[in-house]
Design goal:
heterodimer, A: mainly beta, six-stranded mixed beta sheet, three-stranded antiparallel beta sheet, B: mainly beta, seven-stranded mixed beta sheet, four-stranded antiparallel beta sheet, 56% strand
Amino acid sequence: AQRVTQPEKLLSVFKGAPVELKCNYSYSGSPELFWYVQYSRQRLQLLLRHISRESIKGFTADLNKGETSFHLKKPFAQEEDSAMYYCALRGTGFQKLVFGTGTRLLVSP
Amino acid sequence: DADVTQTPRNRITKTGKRIMLECSQTKGHDRMYWYRQDPGLGLQLIYYSFDVKDINKGEISDGYSVSRQAQAKFSLSLESAIPNQTALYFCATSDVTGANTGELFFGEGSRLTVL
């Protein structure tokens, strides 16, 4: 079974502080991992995918198969990063995304 | 940007009533999805459709039904609404390429309250 765990419901940091949003997954095959973000009054949207190895808005995420993790990191948080972040997994075969429960990031000035 | 439009955006109804949530898209995507969001539970897949003739159950399809009226329209129905179906419902789309890359395009959500 595919499962995504985001242990933190809320993560509160100050502007300029490093931020790490945790995501752990359970899947027996080779997963694809994604981070989706929902800013206030905006639609849920794709932030980044592990396969692209990209940095978006200063965020990066590395897939660690040994620890089955895909944590989202940013060295210096900005107030505009405040949003709801969802980690999602897709297994092989059927392209269905399984989402975690989400972490709300609050960046204070 | 109104590529994926959901109606109604908010609805309050009573137990036992039939409710339909509608989703239309102008993105030309073949694949459409209905998700439900509950606090602390994230997004759970209700139904998905890869094309007009292909409809599949998701993780939590009990109590729901869907209709893919056209490529651009995918409706979610609650035949007899119950209070624990109170939630925020999202429609999403993807094309084959998007499905391969994992990118879904979401609507703004429909908040349903069942009293």
